[in-house]
Amino acid sequence: LVTFGFAIPALAGIGVVAVWERIAEKTAWLAWAAAALAVGAMAAGAIMAYGRQPISISTEEIAQASAASQLADTTPAGTALIFVVDSPDATASLLATRAANVIRAALPPDRVADVYIYVGTPQGLLDRAPTLRGVPEYDALSRLYLSDIPRTGPSVGFVLTAFDEGSDANLPPAFSPVADGVSVAGRPAPAGALAAAPPPRDPLLPSSPGGIILATLAVLALLGGAGGGWAIWAVDDPVDRWLLAPAFGIAGVVLVGVLLERLGLPLAGWIGPTAVSVATGGSGYLLAALSRAQRGAGTEPADTVHQ
Known about the structure:
Elements: H1 7-24, H2 28-51, H3 59-72, E1 80-86, H4 92-106, E2 115-119, H5 122-127, H6 136-148, E3 155-164, E4 176-179, E5 182-185, H7 193-196, H8 209-234, H9 238-262, H10 271-296
Parallel strand pairs: 1-2, 1-3
Antiparallel strand pairs: 3-5, 4-5
């Protein structure tokens, strides 16, 4: 609850400021100490929750998904890449969702749209029929995922043992093993097919902590730059402007991106996102300049706060 209760740190921040202002009227150093203690307590809770999170992707899943990605990349674009996901647990929806995320992360970006999940047995996929076990949730999931799979066109079926419990015992002859824990149906898969395949174009590699930190700072800088003009226009206090700029930036990028996408601007590649960022930031800085000119002309009070 605390991990995903995003309102809690926001309310705590308001409370820390209120406590600091009340104590600072009497003792400044005590106010800073109390604020630091309160912020440290909130940070400690978040750090503990983060540290207790289990590993979400195992090395076995990465190895099998990477091998499947390498083979899938040898198929023509548009070929349906169907992955069997099965679990005796009635809550197969969790496994299916996680499997789809891992598999799509391992594939090159231009093949992500070709990935489909089949909830059921490998034989059920070959029969293009849902796997029914008398469990309403499982049966509904099997029908739902099957309905998403194209009925026509080329397709390749994959079985990864990391996402298909018991697949080794009931694997149909149509599926040929091509790697440890990876079997394929729907295309020739001779021995050594994986070794003959070209190297992965976009392998799934772990992110370094330093890379995550740098990416976070880069995103904050980009959003702050895009929303800086809007923050200058809306808020007078320099510190508040600096703190609110990323929030204005993310709101503006989302709204402008949706608008321009509806008008026909493709958001794939770098041209669309660049145009969205420039339009968001440029409109904000233009509005801030016009507002400053109006204030200089005396047509607007200097302490106006726009809402």
